[in-house]
Amino acid sequence: MSSIQKSEADVVLIGAGIMSATLGVLLKELKPNLKIEVIERLDSTAAESSDAMNNAGTGHSAFCELNYTPERADGTIDATKAINIVEQFEVSRQFWTYLLNKNVLKNPQSFIHTVPHMSFVWGKNNVNFLRKRYEELQKYPLFHGMEFSDNPEKIKEWAPLLMEKRELKENYAATYMPLGTDMNFGDLTRQMFQHLEETDGVNVTFNTHVKDITRNGKKWQVSSVDRKTGSKSEVSADFVFVGAGGGAILLLQKADIPESKGFGGFPVGGEWLVCRNQEIVQKHLAKVYGLASVGSPPMSVPHLDTRFIDGKQCLLFGPYAGFSTKFLKKGSYWDLLKSLEFNNIGPMLGAGLRNMDLTRYLIGEVLQSNKSRHESLREYFPDAKDEDWTLEQAGQRVQVIKKDAKGRGILQFGTEVVAAGDGSIAALLGASPGASTATSIMVKLLSKCFKDEFESPEWQAKFKEMIPSFGMSLNEHPELVAQVRENCSKALKVYPHNK
């Protein structure tokens, strides 16, 4: 019988993506003497949801994502979610600026680029919606600088590919935000982990699969196995964070905390049409988001994106969704079945019945032909040629299913921190806008799991140093918005794009 290698740590981070990277760096800034153990199932950092091709990349800031500004029954626009998301993205930018100034991050051009954010619609009703959205967002300092036009020539000036060889019988409108960015969260994550691996008290282990998480007195015991050698290990820690992307729900269930009961997950795969023909790529510098088709879920929102991947500019269109029982791109087809428990079967079935539009949408996407995909592309780029685009696999995302106040299952389109009552273990469930709001999410997690230290004068002062707007609403302080954005733009080398 092989021996089990045992060790101790203050903190265990499961998963080497953007969330664990952000939390690890925050903790080391707040409490440098902490001993941190990072356990990653694959052979490198940022290999799942944080990877540039695996969905993450917009730099979600609610400038162009129309599903963040729903229309109320009375016809007015609800900007609440959009304001919240752009506030959180600004928090992330401030933290990255702090890390650049400390030389933790060394190359901003590898992970952030100026790319204007656009919304683009057609049809009289959609044009009216976009105009109302623009007028509502102009009330808030965080959206100042956004432009609106229903003039095809102006839209063509912003994004030529949208209007080339388009019949102008329809009404068109677009908004243009020059402050938008493209994010490569894979490169950002790798830079953060490079710093962590060079920091005293941090150990990162790859190719290691976590088999179990159990309570051992006041501590947690994380049991794992080396996927190459089969050797087993156990690490005992005061605090465990499960940041394993879609796989987080399965690990959270192993911990068996009361707060995790009733949670389920619905996996959704993705694909992109990708263009690397530089003659075409160089004609388009924008992230253009449209409206989801009637009856389709928010995740189906189509977009034509300028992206910087592996140091090269390219265009992505999609995403096209598909159904898979895997919770991770490199996961198991048994993931969904393994996640079923007595306490979550009811909510999952209930959520499924109440979201038949999602079921129909996924069936349609799975059965979609290549011809149909290219027809969707030509709604945004009329002159697109099939031979310039290849279909490539994106990542897996797991939409959270949870109980509402009446015990019914509801599908959550967002991210959620699930923490034990004593704050000794926490997991992040869900998907978009995750990566872009990672700093805010991890600060919230620290407030739940390190309550006493979080409120201490030392931690409060450190937060203020790392995030100058900490404790304040940027949206309520226009002068602070301008100051923060100027400081971040200088450090990150991203400036509003002037057409």
Automatic annotation (TrEMBL):
Its EC number is 1.1.5.4. It is an enzyme of class 1 (oxidoreductase). InterPro entries: FAD/NAD-bd_sf (IPR036188), MQO (IPR006231). It comes from the Bacteria. Its cofactor is FAD. GO terms for biological process: tricarboxylic acid cycle. It catalyses: (S)-malate + a quinone = a quinol + oxaloacetate. The keyword Hydrolase does not apply. Coiled coil: none annotated. GO terms for molecular function: (S)-2-hydroxyglutarate dehydrogenase activity; L-malate dehydrogenase (quinone) activity. Pfam families: Mqo. Pathway: Carbohydrate metabolism; tricarboxylic acid cycle; oxaloacetate from (S)-malate (quinone route): step 1/1. Keywords: FAD, Flavoprotein, Oxidoreductase, Tricarboxylic acid cycle. Belongs to the MQO family. NCBIfam families: mal_quin_oxido (TIGR01320), PRK05257.1-1 (NF003603), PRK05257.1-4 (NF003605), PRK05257.2-1 (NF003606), PRK05257.3-2 (NF003611), PRK13339.1 (NF009875). PANTHER family: L-2-HYDROXYGLUTARATE DEHYDROGENASE, MITOCHONDRIAL (PTHR43104). This is Probable malate:quinone oxidoreductase.
